[in-house]
Amino acid sequence: MNLSLEYLVRKPKSDIKNPPLLILLHGYGSNEQDLFSFANELPDDLLIISARAPLTMGPGGYAWYTIHFDNTDGKFSDTDEALKSKEIISNFIDEVITNFDVNPKKVFLLGFSQGTILSYAVALSHPEKVQYVVGLSGYINSELFPGNLNSENFKNLEIYSSHGTVDQVIPVDWARKTKPFLDNLGIKNSYEEYQVGHGVAPQNFYSLKQWIEARI
Fold it and tell me: Which residue from 44, 146, 163, 166 has the fewest beta carbons nearer than 10 Å?
């Protein structure tokens, strides 16, 4: 099956018609194998697709957009590349729905780090395509979606976000702005913190799994 991104798939373990869809979006420098490593621990009813970012960084390493770590102002994201990847992901959702027998009203995005930033951007730009977002170790980058967001468009959107309190890559202060931003738009959301760095604690995984299970 020819889709615009390389991907891995875990079909539902149960005999379910039109299963809910979960798309996994990995972080900077990783690949589609990363988050897919815990796919079998996620609810049986899900069709799970793990996508590979389009930019090659080296053997086994990919990115959704470039980060200039030597920028004098700290990390600098290539906004044009990020916006392009946002639309690639949006189109990829359409392709998956067209090619797999899934429920288009039960679409989950689960991102880590750079994948989270883009999951938020896709959901806020195209709320008609995504109903649920799980955002791990990321933050909301307002440069990646329209400035005139209308809360009426987000009545069917729910977001779970979490962050490590000692994250050395993305400061927890950035993540703490997520909930007030979403609250202001009337988006149902929850935010949790865990005593970890740039990663997912076991209790964090258990929590997000419960959150997903309650919505399928």
Answer: 146
